[in-house]
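Per reviewer request, we include the raw input and output of the structure prediction for the construct analysed in the revised manuscript.
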Amino acid sequence: MTQGFIKVAAVTPKIKVADPVYNAGVICEKLEEAWEKGAKIIVFPELCITGYTCGDLFLQDLLLGEASRQLLRIAECTRGKDALAMVGLPIEREGRLYNVAAVLWNGEILGMVPKANIPSYAEFYEGRHFTQGNAEPVPFVFHGKTIPFGTNILFPCETLEGLTVGCEICEDLWVADAPGVNHALKGATIIANLSASNETIGKDEYRELLVKSVSARLICGYVYTSAGEGESTQDLVFGGHNLIAENGTILAQVKKFTCETLYSDIDVKKILSDRRRMGTFGTPPQANYVKVPFRLEVTKTELSRSFASHPFVPGDKEKRKRRCEEILSIQSYGLKKRYEHTGLSTAVIGISGGLDSTLALLVTVRTFDLLGLDRKGIIAVTMPCFGTTDRTYENACLLTRTLGATLKEVDIRQAVEVHFKDIGQELSNQDVTYENGQARERTQVLMDIANQVRGLVIGTGDMSELALGWATYNGDHMSMYGVNAGVPKTLVRHLVKYYADTCGDKELSEVLEDILDTPVSPELLPPVDGVISQRTEDLVGPYELHDFFLYYMLRCGYSPAKVYRVAKLAFRGLYEDAIILKWLKTFYRRFFAQQFKRSCLPDGPKVGSVALSPRGDLRMPSDASVSLWLEEAEGLG
């Protein structure tokens, strides 16, 4: 539960229809098992104490009475267990029968939530037996104790801020006016659905889509537990298709017909962070709600969910291809609009033979093709200086020629030497002035050429460099439109690779592959024996780590301790913990210190859920203190 993670379980016991005694025994066994595995919220299916398929047996006093008695038995089973459990059964109240979720904790029945929507269509005929549940809770005396009975009951945890649980039952998920909407607006961060959804062809796909979409729309965790083996197969078959989702992502699901208990960890603090970010989340309804608190011991949740080491890059190959095509389209159509607005037909790009300038050139070529402009209007400028190697120089030239753009070479060595002489900078002093002087000279050349040809300077820097401030202020930091501003470094590589694989040009593909194999470097220090001597990741750290830190800090709102925790899981076996922590501290120091560069960024398109534009996603002061974040990071080791 520390850092907001809470383990939940969706349990489908193998029951016997109309045998509450047997079913309660199995439910208690499964409850014990889930609790021992660390589950704090344990959800069983709809009507599982009796079975969903009892039909007219639901009208029998004997069945109803035994179901109620067995609920007490199950409640007693929760005593001393640090978990909240939900179990389904039929309950009679004032001469009417209700399909109910009983919420249990530490031997007590905290409340009963009746099903709000009673289906009586197709294969369902619940209206023959059950009454629509009342929304506003009323007192209900059950075996001598008064408990709230109604749809509008929430269960807040007093020991984990933000954890509030709401309930709905099966059909409640499928309707337009689902109870879960009001539950979420009233503060529920996890919604449990006790279901008995039978299987028909393709229904599992639709069910998954529903669970994903409702968890996304309500920004919540969603635990969906369905009936399975043991239910009558007289007319229907139940597959026990259990799902656990969080804000539009399926964290886990079981294979149908297995009756397996499903576990995952829902991140309550991330849900709260996402709701804070979304100013249109909604206004709490006027409906009357009853809140019944419970307590859980605050312990460290052993995480079973996984965290992608490259959160900006889809793991699935086909999805990754689609994502690459989509991003290239966003970049090129963004630039297309800028050209349509300015009426210009020339582009100027500094081409280095590295990944970023390569991607910028590829995007510009796509833009010119969309506009029907001659690619010769793309002027790719190579500007060799002290650190340029033959490999990158030759790749820059070959790439430009292969794409049909215009290659222009401006050797800046002499200009930089004159500048250094003017300001008293010794060539032997290879400090930050030595490096940045080259970068600023290159930008001056590009800007002036753009003036000569009435063109736009296309920026090449990517989002990861912007996050770290790995750009020379008023050097490569500046352009007239930064096409890569929303693309993290880990994704740049895949975009170039995608282009290489799909361009249909062998020569172009070969040069792109060699660029992909070239170490990332600004090439501002002289090479050693013709080989790049300055590797960016040796200086600022691995980009895959920094992209990971950036995503979980900005997109998920994680604190340094939480970022470090999930990074250790994601990069287990790849980086030692000490290395991860070292670069995490570097990330925070640089991210805060370099905001002044991001505060005056050129225009550029947003492509994903994380962006650094001062006009869009990141309204951050340039002089904000990093102390709070570094203090927590320093305390990690």
